[in-house]
Amino acid sequence: MPTSQFQPVYGVIQSIRQVQGQCCQQMVTVATQNGIVMLTISSNTFVVDNVPLRSGLPIFAFYDGNAPVPLIFPPQYQAVVIGRRMRNESVMLDFFGSDLLNNDGTLRLNLGSSTEVINSNGQRVSCNLGGQLLLVYYSTTTRSIPAQTTPRKVIVICR
Fold this sequence. Notes:
mainly beta
């Protein structure tokens, strides 16, 4: 069974510095449970809600696990998405099929009347979410296989 190409990073920003000679790139140092991770933030990175990144901010980020990375320590990844992490909330970035089952078959979405569905520009959308790259915010899931959830918020990542 295929796994998601997007790999998560959860942690707290330790520092942010401008990449030398690059106006539109920053290097963010993140302390995770497994050690330090470096994230490159560029003009191609979707910053959820345009949250200002700062030291001490708890964040989630996703990078493309299929993209080449330099073999250095600490690991360094190009962030695809980065945002503020809220307590007791999970976040997933993945492609979802027409049945709203994610790429590796581990999570099915049950959209509710209270689920906020917007695009990456913050506009409400009512399109079919099947076949889309979705950033999903949720707190609880069933113990079934696949797990099911009614997300609080879904962001359609328009590429």
